[in-house]
Each structure stands twice: as C-alpha cells, then as structure tokens.
C-alpha cells in the first residue's frame, strides 16, 4: 500500500481549480475510464429530499444505467446510497446479489451490454453526497490496486463536491475564497481537513447549537472562517473550546 | 477486596493476569458483531495500562495511502500523530513505510525526523515514541504508537506484547465482516475512517447538548453503546441523524462498566 493510483493522481490536480459540479463529475468519470479497467462511468448527486441529479455519464450506456435506477428506484447505485457501502457486482448474470433488485437487473440485461457493475458512495460522515457508478461489458472483479484507486477517487470527489457546496460566496471586493496557490481554499479546506477531529467535533456542536444538518453546519463554519479570514481548523478549535458559539441571531 | 478473593492469592504477577484478561476481553469482542473503532479504542486503552505508556494511538492508511488517526487514548496523543502527518515524517510514518517497528527513545536528541522533532519538542508533550506496525503479509496497513513522557527504551518484553496487541488490531480489522473479496480490506479501512467522522460529529453534538467536554462526550457515547450492546458507529450515526435523543445517550449511568 502507499502509492496513489492513476485516478486519484488525476483528481488531486483538480483541488486548485475552479470547477463546477458538472466539471468535477466529468473529470472524475473520465479519469476512471482511463485509469481503471472499466468501460464507462457516471456520477450522480444525491441532494436533500431524495432528489437525484446525474452530473456526468461518459456514454449512453452509463446514462441509461442511471436513468433506469432512478425511474425504478432500485439498483446498485440506489443501494450504495442507502447503505453507504460500496456495491460490487463483478458478474451480473451469475450472482445472487441481483435478487435484491430484480426489476433493475432484468432491465439492464435487456437494454444494455453491461456485465459488471460497481457502485461507490461518496460520503462525508453519515451523509451520502452522491454515487459513482462504474460498469464493464465483460464480467470480472476490479484489481486490488484498481479498487483502492477507485475508493480513493470517490473520496477525493466527495471532498471536492462538499467543498464546493459549503464554500462561502466570494465577497464583492473582498479576497477570493479560493487561493490560486497550493490548491486549497482560503480557509484551509483540503484533504487534510478530513483527518482533523476538531472540524468534525465543531460540526456536531454547531449542528446542536442551531439544529441544522451537518452540511449546513460545515458551511456555517467555513463562512465564519472566511469572514474572519481565519483557517477552518482554527475556528473549529474555538468552537470546541467554547471560545465561540453560533447563535440564531447570526443567521 | 474480600479476604477470600481467590485472585488475591494468585502467585502470578499482576501484569500477567491483566494481559490474560485483556486478550480474553478482546477475543470476546471479536466473537460478537463488533465495530472496528470500538475494538481499536479498547486496544489503545489496554496499551496504556499494560505497557505503562502515557498515551497510545492507532493510525490506518486510507485508500489513497495517507495515514489517519482512528483511535487515541488522549487528545495529546492525537496531537502528536497530527504533528507527524504535518511534518510528513516521524516514527509512526517510518514504521508504516517499512512495515517494521521504529523506536525513538528520546525524540529531543534524535536527528532522524528534524521537522517532527522540532514541532514535538516545542510542545514538550512526550519524550519517547515507539511505533509498531499493523502487519499484513509483509505490508503495513497502519501503525500503533506508544508514547511516554519520560525518555528511554521500551523493554523487549513490552515491545513483544505491544506487537501482539497491534496484531490483534489487524485481525480485528480484517475480520469485521467475512472476507469475500480481496477488495474488502480497502473497504473496511475506508468504512472505519468514515465512521470516525460520524463519531467525532456525535461527540460534538453530545458535548453541546449536555454541556460536556469532548472527552466526556466520548465516554458517554462509548458507555451507552456497550450498555445497550450496540456498535459505537451505529449509535453515533443515530445521534447525528436525530434518531436518538442526545440527552439519553449523554445520561450518566452508574451501571456502566468501567475498565
């Protein structure tokens, strides 16, 4: 273990770029098709209220898989989103796994050439942000390295999407919320944030202080860090140490 | 202690009994439907007691190969791990890289990890750090760190015991669910790391709602899970999803089994 895979490497470069959700989806899916032993990829966002939006699909088959799942409301991707665990089906025709979504499996067999399907959830704590679907027209498992690469890529994509969704809006004349150097936002948002317990602890405290979701709480923390021109981890530290608390009036 | 307590006359040294008890408890955990993070949390606590360490922590590599702290006996231990991550070097990182034990009997006098030494010395938290690999087929999937306030080597016997505890951690991670595919290990690690985020959020919610410190909040969360025979991550998930009242989890109960 140790070295990064091709897909993770390709995504790491995106951290410093100004990308919208769709571009993140496009780059992630393309990197997967190029770096992994798969024929197509799609990324769907799962927003609040169980609404879904396919951000990107590399081809019509990948798009078809997404459409089928969303209209039937069952399938590997839906299961990955609900359980928060990856769903791997290396051989769609020789497995008992498809018994969990019989209608979807039958539709895939009838309407697409897909033989293997891998659905990876993009997660942040208990929340599932979206799902990355990979398919192949021949059966077989992903290699160990490929699997690790795919998981890491899903993780990086989750960080990018979450970062976008919680990023404070740029002030009219103020400094940009994203710094061009170092590939990090001005408040220190980057891969390192996931390994800082105080950020998650402070998120929980703000959830309780304002009765809001984890994503909103994180957005509030980032907005405050931005307004004060401080690092997210430092603001989080203040919240945990009770030197600072959010109140309803601050909304 | 009662006078007819049979253990009172046990001729074996105290530590041997404790070691036995620790492994029995860990084996019991492995038999049940357990949570990896709960097991690792028990492990670091045992490390502190059995190896007379001042702190202990376990780091695991995520799918991208980056190390992340998943269990620690104290915030200070967590901090030392963070310093190593930031410095990009240190006993734990080296141990992971080479899948071999690394001892730093005095971190203030060694020149092996200048950036880490400088950061750690300025905080004067610990003087010695010993890192043991979580070994799997010649690779390391993470590392166990033992920290002491005083400088000095760790006796060979303690190193062997520490390695045995590190091996239990590896077994625990591998066995959480049945191994069906070679990919499962990466998935287990990823799930454990993600569960850690949920647990930290739940600690924050409990701390806020019940006016507790983060450490107290974790104690209550852990006690509630064990009392009700639930997985730590599941309870944390329920707290963050608002499916269980924080007050219920945060309630202090005399019946909680303390180690």
Describe this structure as you would to a colleague:
The complex is a heterodimer of chains A (251) and B (259). With 251 residues, chain A is an alpha+beta fold. Chain A is 45% helix and 14% strand. In chain A, β1 (40-46) and β2 form a beta hairpin. The model of chain A is unreliable at 177-183 (pLDDT under 50). Chain B has 259 residues and is α+β, with helices and mostly antiparallel strands. Chain B folds into 2 domains: 14-176, GAF domain (Beta-Lactamase); 193-250, Orthogonal Bundle (Arc Repressor Mutant, subunit A). Chain B has a 5-stranded antiparallel sheet, with helices on both faces. In chain B, α1 packs antiparallel against α2 and α3 (75-87) runs antiparallel to α5. Chain B is globular. The A-B interface holds A 1-4, 8, 84-86, 88, 123-126, 141-142, 144, 147-149, 151-152, 155-156, 191-192, 194-197, 200-209, 214, 240 and B 61-66, 68-69, 78, 82, 85, 97, 139-141, 181-183, 186-187, 190-191, 193-194, 196-198, 200-209, 214, 236-237, 240-241, 246.
């Amino acid at each position: 273990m140790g070295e990064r895979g091709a897909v993770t490497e390709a995504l790491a470069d995106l951290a410093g770029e100004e990308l919208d959700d769709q571009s993140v989806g496009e780059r992630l899916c393309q990197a997967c098709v190029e770096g992994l032993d798969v024929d197509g990829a799609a990324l769907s966002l799962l927003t609040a209220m169980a609404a879904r939006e396919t951000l990107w699909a590399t081809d019509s088959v990948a798009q078809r898989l997404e459409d089928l799942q969303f209209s039937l409301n069952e399938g590997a991707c839906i299961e990955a989103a609900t359980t928060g665990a990856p769903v791997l089906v290396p051989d769609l025709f020789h497995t008992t796994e498809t018994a969990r979504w019989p209608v979807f499996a039958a539709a895939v067999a009838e309407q697409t050439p897909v033989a293997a399907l891998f659905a990876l959830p993009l997660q942040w704590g208990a929340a599932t942000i979206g799902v990355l679907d990979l398919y192949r027209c021949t059966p077989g498992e992903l290699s160990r390295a490929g699997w690790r690469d795919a998981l890491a890529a899903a993780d990086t994509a989750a960080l990018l999407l979450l970062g976008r969704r919680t990023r404070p809006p740029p002030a009219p004349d103020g400094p940009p919320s994203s710094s061009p150097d170092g590939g990090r936002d001005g408040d220190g948002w980057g891969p390192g944030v996931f390994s800082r317990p105080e950020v998650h602890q402070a998120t929980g405290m703000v959830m309780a202080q304002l009765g809001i979701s984890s994503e909103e709480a994180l957005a509030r923390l980032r907005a405050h860090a931005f307004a004060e021109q401080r690092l997210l981890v430092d603001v989080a530290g203040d919240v945990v140490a009770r030197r600072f608390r959010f109140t309803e009036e601050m909304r | 202690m009662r006078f007819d307590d049979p253990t009172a006359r046990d001729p074996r040294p105290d530590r041997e009994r404790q070691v036995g008890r620790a492994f029995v408890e860990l084996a019991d955990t492995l038999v049940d439907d357990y949570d990896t993070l709960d097991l690792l949390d028990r492990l670091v606590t045992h490390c502190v007691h059995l190896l007379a360490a001042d702190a202990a922590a376990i780091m695991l590599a995520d799918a991208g190969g980056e190390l992340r702290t998943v269990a620690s006996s104290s915030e200070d231990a967590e901090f030392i791990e963070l310093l190593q991550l930031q410095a990009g070097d240190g006993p734990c990182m080296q141990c992971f890289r080479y899948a071999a034990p690394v001892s730093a009997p005095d971190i203030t006098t060694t020149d092996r990890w200048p950036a880490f030494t400088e950061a750690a010395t300025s905080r004067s938290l610990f003087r010695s750090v010993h890192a043991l690999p979580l070994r799997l087929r010649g690779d390391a999937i993470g590392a166990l760190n033992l920290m002491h306030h005083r400088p000095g080597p760790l006796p060979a016997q303690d190193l062997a015991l520490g390695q045995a505890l590190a091996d239990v951690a590896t077994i625990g991670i591998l066995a959480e669910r049945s191994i069906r595919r070679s990919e499962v290990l990466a998935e287990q690690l990823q799930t454990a790391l993600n569960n850690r985020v949920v647990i930290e959020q739940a600690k924050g919610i409990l701390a806020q709602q019940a006016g507790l410190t983060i450490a107290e909040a974790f104690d209550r969360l852990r006690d509630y899970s064990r009392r009700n025979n639930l997985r730590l991550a599941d309870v944390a998930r329920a707290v963050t999803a608002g499916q269980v009242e924080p007050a219920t989890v945060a309630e202090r109960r005399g019946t909680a089994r303390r180690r």
